[in-house]
Amino acid sequence: MKFPDLPVTSALTELSQAIAAGHAVLTAPPGSGKTSIVPLALLDEPWLAGQKILMLEPRRPAARMAARRLAQIAGSKVGGLVGYQVRLDRKVGPDTRIEVITEGILTRRLQHDPTLEGVGLVIFDEFHERNLQADLGLALCLDVCAGLREDLRLLPMSATLAAGPLCALLDARHVQASGRQYPVSVHYLAAQDRREPLAAMPGLVRQALREGDGDLLVFLPGRGEIEQLARELESDCAGAGVALQKLYGDLPAAEQDRILLPPADSARRVILSTDLAESSVTIEGVSGVVDSGLARKPRFDANSGMTRLQRQPISQASAEQRAGRAGRLRPGTCYRAWTEARHARLLPATAPEIVTSELGGLVLELALWGISDPLQLSWLDAPPPAHWQQAVALLQQLDALNPDGGLSPQGRRMAQLGLEPRLARLLVEARSHDEALLVCDLAALLSERDVFAGEQARAADLELRLHALQAWRKDKAGSAAGRRRLQAVDQLSRSLLRQLRVDAQGPERTPGELMSCAFPDRIAMRRGGRGRFLLANGRGAVLDQADSLADADFLVVTALDAGQREGRIWSALPLSLEALLDAQAAHVEEGEEVAWDEQRQGVVARRVQRLGALVLTQKPAMPHDPPAAQALLLEQVAKRWPEALPWKEGARQLQARIERMAKLQPDSDWPDVSDQTLRADLGAWLGPWLGQRLRLSQLDDLDLGECLKGQLDWQQQQQLDAWLPTHYSTPAGSRRQIDYTTEGPPQLSVPLQEMFGEADTPRLAQGRVSLGLALLNPAGRPIALTGDLGNFWRNAYVEVRKELRGRYPKHDWPEDPAAAVARRGTGRPRRR
Question: pLDDT band for position 223 (50/70/90)?
Fold first, then answer.
């Protein structure tokens, strides 16, 4: 077989020797002929012995184009020596020895035939893209090689792959082909150009049209940016006789192929494309590339359990791949919408999907393979533990996994369908033939491009699409674009229906009820204003207030952009509470909950039905869990400390006395009754006294002194009263309260006359503590503060006596108070 003169041919001999000995890794620049030459060059190797070659491509258009190119070089038709299989499209014949397939097809074949009987070589083309299915396929193939097929060869190929780690993983030889087929000159924005990439794109396209003469391939992050740039360039292209074409994943296969195949006329083209055209495919006629340097990629957040599409800069490797599209058939030019300095700051390579994506499908596939721990397999990058656990939790919600991580019977049925787990769960939920039709339609609507366009597409209600599909089947009416989209949905639905075996009859459930089984974590309940919802997973979500579903009590959200704070709902189905409770009966938790009612300032109990973060129903109830109610009340007491409790003087005095005793006897076991400790340990000292109290107002009759006294044993109570009594009996026979809450020594406020006859300062705690005396005049006003009564009598009393005799002449003011008789009042007989 004669091959085109492409750079990769120089490495074929070395590659043949390497692959004969075992696995190999091939790196070669874009446009060097890896995809179109290597499978044919290895087909007749002795070690292959007539077996097949499977070549994996990351995208369906790339698989179809690669098969056509291989068949053309081999001089045969697609379906002969070379065939392909992608979703809903298969052209393989009995003589086919090279099958070009998408990565997911390999996983399905491995699950049905772990030995890959009849296959001698698996080629992983464009492996640098590190798609999740490619990493999974490689890990499973390595497992097959280790245990079942030592003769099976693996060959990853790429233009920009770092070969070292992959060669180490495979124990493979690295073969490198040098040289691009045609040179590509690269132009950056000027260093002083501060425009954002998308703002620079119209000018760069116009510049490329002026300076070149071939077709232009323009890379943009998504369909929205494609439509915007198309509007800006429409008049320029029309005036210059240039055809403006759009290429993105949602286009029907026929339209994609029309752009990828050689054009029927010689009109110059400007092709606005997503990264679909970044690798694997050669678009005839392209000699110029204009690159925005942006891509829209899904990024999974393990904390929220949701995936968000993010527009982000591409890597240097992706930029190299895109530039290579211009040098496939002739010398080319690449215009980059960023500066050379900015290019140096780009990441060297794109992060593998396995570390950024939701892993539900991966976990399900490995469970079907018999693996519950991903580390049992060999990975270039192992699945992140947080993402793995999130996926396990989701699959358990979908009833696909048992608690031990093994497949449930339902999970096995789901895995055998080879679909994304949510869609598989939706399909296996069908209990009757009518429901099987319905779930296949729903799954197809979620999988294919939106059947609505323009203003209609803003409506989130998936049932509107379902009705449109059913109406189209009756009369095939609608716009040409709408008919194509509906036809694609119908085709996929019929294909899915062929995988189901449900012939029973029964009552048909609503679309929302069926869909809730596939999206249990995204069941949403309206909260607050119109269009605001809370998801069962605890996240907030919003819906356009003008949407017909904005007032629904419950939704099943089928398409959601995670957003920063609240997710944006793009697609949903209405759901009644009754249907929800029926569909989620196994997951709805029912029980009593206690909560704090701010208006009542108390604990209330309710009987609730809850699904995740959603309280579906609630009824008032009497608390049957006193400890939980008490804990909630005490939590509020702590927040309102100390005002929430009736702190009377006696309680505060007792608290101070206990604290002083703890200082007097630091080695004893006196309790810590400081405010800080009491607040932190409310349950221990206050809890036993709460009884049936549930409100703050019911705490007013608590005797906190008794509560504190309960912290002391009988001996401590006796010692406390003996050492630090509440009152002092004066020489006059009156009982005066001692204040222990003051700074310094305890304070006794007492009329001076009642202390006559007391020669020295009274002392407490077996003489360890002296009282501070606030001596009062007959009117009860302080006249002296002293901690040394004897000294006061000897010195200060002389002057005090002079003043008091003049002001209170009816009272007795002895010259020697230390030897005098204590008196109360004037000391004279009272009238009867």
Answer: confident
Select from 152, 176, 200 the last residue of a domain.
176
Looking at the structure, do residues 124 and 188 belong to the same domain, yes or no? no
Question: What stretch of H or E contains 621?
Answer: strand 614-621
Give pLDDT tens digits for 112-146: 999 999 999 999 999 988 999 999 999 999 999 99
CB 66 within 8 A of CB 283: no
Contact 674, 660 (CB under 8 A): no
Cα 496 to Cα 516: distance, rounded to the nearest angstrom: 19
Residue 280: per-residue pLDDT: 67
Spatial neighbors of 215 by CB under 8 A, at least 6 apart, are 268, 269, 270, 271, 283, 284, 285, 286, 287, 288
Considering the chain, what percentage of its residues have pLDDT values greater than 90?
69
Residue type, position 805, single letter: R
| Ramachandran quadrant class, 241 (left: phi over 0; alpha: psi -120 to 50; beta: rest) | left
**Alpha carbon distance 809, 826 (integer Å):** 9
- Clarify whether residues 700 and 736 are in a common domain: no
pLDDT single digits (tens) 694-720: 999 999 999 999 999 999 999 999 999
- Do 191 and 339 fall into the same domain? yes
In this structure, the answer to whether residues 716 and 746 fall within a common structural domain is no
The amino acid sitting at 458 is: R
Residue 623's pLDDT is 78
b/e burial code for range 473-506 (CB count within 10 A of at least 16 → b)? eeeeeeeeebebbbbbbbebbeebbeebebeeee
Rounded distance, CA 171 to CA 165, Å?
Answer: 10
Residue appearing with tokens 């696995």: 23
**What is the tens place of the pLDDT at every residue in 102-117?**
988 999 999 999 999 9
Give Rg (Cα) of the chain.
42
117 is a domain residue: yes
> Which of 176, 194, 227 is at the close of a domain?
176
Least confident window among 154-158, 301-305, 456-460, 466-470 = 301-305
Strand order in the sheet with 727-729: 727-729, 735-739, 747-751, 772-776, 782-786
What residues pair up with 641 in beta bridges, in sequence order? Answer: none
CB 220 within 8 A of CB 231: no
Q: Quick one: how far is CA 141 from the chain centroid? A: 31
Q: In degrees, to the nearest 5, what angle opens at C-alpha 485 toward C-alphas 479 and 490?
A: 120
**pLDDT tens sequence across 388-398:** 999 999 999 99
Is residue 318 scored above 70 in pLDDT? yes
35 and 158 assigned to the same domain:
yes
pTM: 0.72
The reply to whether 676 falls in a domain is yes
Any domain includes 526: no
DSSP string across 736-785: EEEE-SSSSS-EEEEEGGGGTT--S--EETTTTEEPEEEEE-TTS-EEEE
Whether 290 and 348 map to the same domain: the answer is: yes
Q: Average per-residue pLDDT in the chain? A: 90
Q: How far apart are CA 256 and CA 68, in angstroms?
A: 14
Distance between CA atoms of residues 307 and 558, nearest Å: 12
CATH number reported for the structural domain that contains residue 275 in this entry: 3.40.50.300
Q: What is the domain count for the chain?
A: 4
User: How far apart (Å, rounded) are the C-alpha atoms in residues 228 and 225?
Assistant: 5
Region for 538 from its dihedrals, namely left if φ exceeds 0, alpha if ψ lies in -120 to 50, beta otherwise = left
The predicted structure's pLDDT at residue 499: 87
Query: For position 508, what pLDDT does the model report?
Result: 82
Does any domain span residue 661? yes
Domain co-membership, 27 together with 71:
yes
| Residue-range definition of the domain harbouring residue 121 | 7-176
Residue 831 is predicted with a pLDDT of 36
Full DSSP string of 637-672: HHHTTTTTS---HHHHHHHHHHHHHHHHSTTS----
Question: Which pLDDT band holds residue 480 (cuts at 50, 70, 90)?
Answer: low
pLDDT at 367 (0 to 100): 94
Domain match, 128 and 74 both: yes
